[in-house]
Structures
1.
Amino acid sequence: MALNRKVALITGGVKNQPRPSPPLRQQRTPSIKVRFYQGNLTSAGAVTRLFQDVLEDFEHIDIVMNTVGKVLKPITAITEEEYDTMFAVNSKTAFFVLKEAAVHVTDAPVEHFTRGVCKELQSRRVSVNNITPGPMDTPFFYPRESPEAVEFHKANGMGNRLTMVEDIAPIVRFLCTDGAWITDQTIFTNGGYTTR
């Protein structure tokens, strides 16, 4: 499956997204169109509007990549209100993005959502996977961590470093092309971070 003429909807803050996103940039094609949309995806209505806007602009959606996520601070310092915000961003958004993807894609909680949606969509030959990168070297990560915590996270990954966006891009591209037969999987792309 080539990425030519495919429409990919990628959710997440632009601070953590190169322009265009690596899976698209690595596709050697002269005609990549990138359009930015804004919205608060913790609202189910906003997620629906996002999909409607993309469909209006591009007529179809082939690939959905949800990169929305939020980590506020160490667990011992998180208040109930902050937890509610974090849960809304990390879980509620993932659920409603998957729900809309289940309707519009033509060809912990996130893992369970992935499994449930996978079973529902496999008869339509739509694959659903969850990529789990662990701590990533993005502007989103550093303000929330102490220098000691950053070094701890680096020490737990291969090569004494954090996951880079470029580490994930080849996996996303593979899953969207030759690896389309892979489904219902959580793929840990973190340099062994979770094995320590």
2.
Amino acid sequence: MKLPRRVPWASIGDLDQLCSWIFADESDLEAKKRAVERLSAWKAITSLPHALESTLALLAVILQDNLSQSSTSGLALRQSYATALIRLVNGLVDPLQSGAYARSIASIAAQLGLPPWLVELRHAATHEDLPSLELLRDAARESMAWLLHNYFLPTLNPSASTQAPAAQLPSLSPLLKQYKTLLKITTRDTSVQEKYEADILSVQRSIQRWIAQAKVAAGTSAGDLAWEEDEDPKEKWALERLSDALLEKGALVPLSKKKRLFPADSFLPPLSSLALWTPLLTQIYSEHPSLPYVLVQRILATMLSAPADVSGEDPRPDPSFDMCLARWAFWAIDTWDVDFEESELDIKRDVVVTLVNALGPGSAETTRDKKAATALLETICGDKKEFQEATKTLLSHGTAAQPHTWTQGDIDEMHQRLHALLSTEKSAPDEGDALAISLVPQPNSRSSDVAPGWHLLGDNSGWKPCPIGIPSLDDVLGGGLPLSCSSLILAPDSHSAYGELVQKYFIAQGLACGQEVIVVDDCGRAFVEECMWLPGAPTTTSTKPIEDDEDEKASQHDDKIKIAWRYEQMKKFQTTVSASSSYVSSYKGFLLWSNQYLRQICG
């Protein structure tokens, strides 16, 4: 992200007004004079971009030429025009003349879309006789038009600006192949190294020139013609294109799989590849220190991306290709990470974060093999104990578990386990057994002491959602719970009175729906008898003593205070079960104890 930059104008309207003064009417000298005064005022308070600096110089000469033709000699005007034009061209070209090897001004100007004859005129004015005054006036008008279309209009309206198509960036593959051929010759026979040293140096210079050319292409593609001082985005774009060319098969990764022989004692690329490409990478790194960071990030993007659709007999990704890339990434980290310790770029940290996000649970599933990425993560974290524990935990989880789909086979297996459990030898309960089970079978059950177990609900099962009696939970559960199966209640929950209330409602709904309810508790009968109250039904609990009127009112007042106001506003639900003689008889007739069943569950 680019940092905010200081501009001389208070608002974009000021720049728009300046543009209208300069270009609205070519013959309006008063407007051009106001433009010169405005630019001079801006220059007094802050530095001007090169485009505005050149505009000020050209306007000053144009005004001098038109307002004082009789008093100014032709030689002075020619020198003033030539100086303004030379500074314009040099100011555009020099910032892009980076690197150890210079590029021609004509090639850079061509990428910027600058008219070639202006470059020739600049050369003539610098090294030869001064051009004629008429030619210099035409060059000034051409320069002002170029500034209008390449600076003022794009700055005033970036979305609608139309840039001239940038020159196509030539392919880097021929240069890399030439370099690879020369290095193969010298590595196989060291005696000819001096013979090919000049050729190798020439190729390295050509690659550096290609990087500089790519930086210019990055600026023109983004509509940025060196008006700003921030060069990092351009260099990053150029190094990304370089890295993409190096990551193609036949460059850093040998084309033949037989040549991808990795060292057994270290996580490094093939030794033959190291011998070929280390000199070039080291030489580029000396001129572009951000190369390791960009190269490693491009390697990770290639390893973790989905493979492209390839038509052929074997379109599957190549695991050895990814493993070779992973080893090159570790080599770059291990070789140059020391140089980044004092900078804001921490290669190792960023690589670990990227790999953890890509390999952790919930990451996107791709057909690309992630063994290389996993091996790279383990190798990077091998020398730090805190990273080792985190990596071990991450890799132990693997991919996220897929949701299981229940089938009839699963139900059959559960039935088999249930029959195996019930077929064990039954033993009589001990009198001192502290636990008891309240088993409440129903008349429609297949057995009075055996639970039917789990079963799938068919379309004709008649099941309907049954609210559990607690409005806040009824809404969360979507209107109720599937109570057409047997319920096993482990009660009570001594840590939460609210939880005990929920358990009692489960039991009540199970009994009301004709289910077999098993309650595991020391006093299961008392727990079930207190779970619900039926109008007109006899109760086994002791009657509540009659309180005094004042005490009862005070108690009701205290209870009302305990209820939050938001619960009073909740919608009402019918949570009681209507009285039914059949239900009361079934409730009184089928409340049984079964310690033996508890032994089978716990044993």
3.
Amino acid sequence: MSNALFRFSSDAGLHLCRQLSEKDLHFVPHDYSLIVATNVLDGVDCLFRSACGSGKTGVLALIALCIGKMGKNPSAIPTAYRSRIPEKPVILVACPTDALEIDLEAKLRSYNVKALAINSDLLADAFKRNEDIWDTAKQAEVLLVSPEMLEGDAFANALKDKSFFHRIYLLVVDEVHLVYQWSKLFRKAYGNIGITRNRLDKKTRLLLLSATVRSGPPYTHILKTFNLTSGNFLDLHRSNRRPEVRVTTTFLPTSPASSYTFPFLSWIIGLRGITIVFTRNRTVLLRIVLYLMRAHPTYAHLIRKCDSTNDLTYDKTTFEMAQRESHEKRLILVSTAVLTVGIDIPSVVRVITLEPLTFEQEIQEGGRVLRRKSKGTTAEVYAYFSKATYDRAKEIVDVDKAGKSHGNIAKTGDKRKLHQRLESADVGMHADQTGKAILSLDMAYRLVADCLTKEQDRQFDNPPFYQDLCTCPMCLSLQPTTSESDTSVTDPPCISSCCMPGQSERDRLLQSRKEVLAPPPDPPKLSRIEIRQRNVERRQQQLNLAGKETRGYLRDRLISLRSKLFDKYGDNYTLYIPICFVPDQAIETILDNFFLLDTPKHLRESLAGQGLEAEWIDDIWLELHDSIPGLLEVHEKHCEDKRRKTKEARDRNKAKKMAQSLGKDVENTQSQDAEGQEDYYDSEVE
């Protein structure tokens, strides 16, 4: 270890890093994670670009564990490197959202790394206790802060502590593509992180992480912000494709901003796995949450909103529900941008994004699915766009391909000025003079692309997917099998709706529900005698089960049976919701034929053609049998109320007749008195 030529990026250095981290890491590090970590330990700045869920956070944990143990035990590293690693090294991580800070803090602590997320809630608690949060922060190994906090006076005062100043070993910028997207729009602090780097010790390394740095202006802007030039940093670029994720592009039936009901989202209620719905409008978010809660109150407690207005307790409860292994995993998270980047939630199997503004945003939101990979598993992403957005995208692409300006295509717009704004803007999301978001050129090309995968490879300059195959156990298990004669590995095919239409989970689910809930076929034509016999039977049924109370009681019993059957058989029928087990049509059939259902066989015959399994019908028969005592009680009460009302009506009619007869006697008496008075007056006059 005393060799002056030792480098961490050598085979010996890689072996040393594995030894230092294998005890605390719950996984074998990827080969590319070790390459990035060892280059950082060698003092090289790094830009690491890789797909969502490919282990970028694992690089941070790997570095933190290695430098922490080397700082405590300097004898484990060569003499030449001991002066480069302080006794208690600190890693400073700039995070875009509080939710990402909380997620990274929990994950790093699971690896025995002392991490601390400094956010507004923590600062408020420290202020109430009259404490300086930076005194506590100096004891942590990894500090998770916002870019705005790096510009604050509190951080500037903390840097005046020379001990803490020299302990800052590494500056990490997570989701560095936001430096290009957000710095010119609403978070200027993102553009000043490069200045923060200049305020730190010259020995402080730099690590930039992202999955969506587009080639061209975004890439150039990031290098310029951090003063990186070709040759003075490591640019490890891996493909950001996720071939196991199917992207379905579809049209919105109505504008979410003007809607209060969202029936096109009702199919996600009650499905196994976690579903995330992304919208950039907070008002729309609240409307969606209320609609989903009212659409199926049984799952109202599993529908959670995620935005920046939530308090820390609510967010922690949401993340605990998502992380809990024993949970039913039917959680629905309706979120703004707070869950767009970096959040690692297991069991997310589908994402719905409503009108994303940029291609990067769509990829980041879709990157929340399938964070725990296994061979053969797939996930779904549904991108909803309005028809007007798609038409505008075609116009923009046509104008751009023709070599003209791609500004406002409207007849009243100034194409030249808007074209200049789009070309000169160092942002990914564009806005017109009124501040209203407009479609960016990269998103326009994505919408009209014949193959989404090829367009993604073009815009992000992706290398071949299977380039430099990783030899860790997880990656080896995911690699496609090859024959002995042909060992070449080709890129996986595109499974999105552009290349494989009509095969999404939503399409299969809606089709299966349509078959289950479809009305029965029209009955055959009957003769007059058969119609008369049928009417007699129906009349008998109506006499036996005529009251609204009895029908309502039995209907309530059958509706409550839906949830029981769903809990009992839901694992085997993952695409079904409770109404599929006892459809409304089946309930009406049972109510109309209740007293003719003598045996389970009669019940099966009456429900034939409605798509119900035999085991479901057996449970329905048991429920009907158990409901008879209560049904008779309700029927008896109904009859008693009817008899009472009949008696009361009879008494009222009798009293009315008596009153009418008394009224006639009074009228006769009054008329006789009047005649007598007239005779008296006549006699007086005479």
4.
Amino acid sequence: MPYEIKMPQLGMNQDSATIVTWLKNEGDGVNKGDPVFEVETDKATMEVEAQASGYLSAIQVELGVEVPVGNLIATIVENKKDVLKSIQEPYSDDKNQSVADDGSKIEHETITEKSNEVTPEIGDLSFKIDTNSKDLSKKTGFSPNEKVLASPKAKVIAAERGLDMRRLIARGLKEPIHSADIMGLQSGEQSQLMAVVQDRLLLELIQTSEDIDKGNIFASFLLGSWHFLFPDKFLHVQINKLDGSVSLFKEDILPEEGAEEVIVSIINLCDTRLFSYSSGQNGNVLSVSHSNDTFILNFSFNVADIKLQEAAFLLNELAERVEDPIRQLI
């Protein structure tokens, strides 16, 4: 008779855990006491051992899914010929389904929220922003609010070194991330460049529209500059606002498979008395401020992502587009 592997309770107040690594594959032989998988709770990551000998069968849970204590995860069968790929629908935390008294699934009505997309236009210039990062992450594979699958120790080490897990994933690091993965990384040096640009032409365009957001304009100009200079690399532009909100600037171009991806955050300081901002860690941040008829572009970047020469070309191209917005259309 198959032995059922269920999510164990690993702490007094723990009611669920997330599987971060399978140490055995379906069909592999296991002995009682062998570690089978690793789970992560809010406090630790630990191995779970087999309580019976046989062959691992019918894995029910994908990596990264939070599973309640007591839910079936897999089975151990005595004979290899009895190994099954699946014995039931894999566990899902989808809250859009319920089960009726007769066991049938009830599909809940899906409510679609009004689109958050804003498309302000300035003459022939058009800038597009979509604050729905969940939908955007399906297209780009990146979301500023998406949970990263990593062990607590890896998260602590990354925080100590000033490393952004999402940037590491965009650069090719695979989930789940372990402490050894972080220990072997080169964090790179942080550098900074600044440009001062005349504001007249851009302000004339901005004044023709009441709804335009300067942060969106600079995000569009930054993307245009990047694609012009580095067509083989893909740039994600993240807009960070002073109220703490984060959104991903939407563009129609999607990264090609295997393309190098870089993340740059933009902070708009134009309506404040602040002059510039530097990340102080290993991020790539463009801050934009306004003073005495000029825009001040301060670019803090990590040389592991963007080399000094690339950053200089990028900031110079961006400055030229800000000073003469018609370049954005060329």
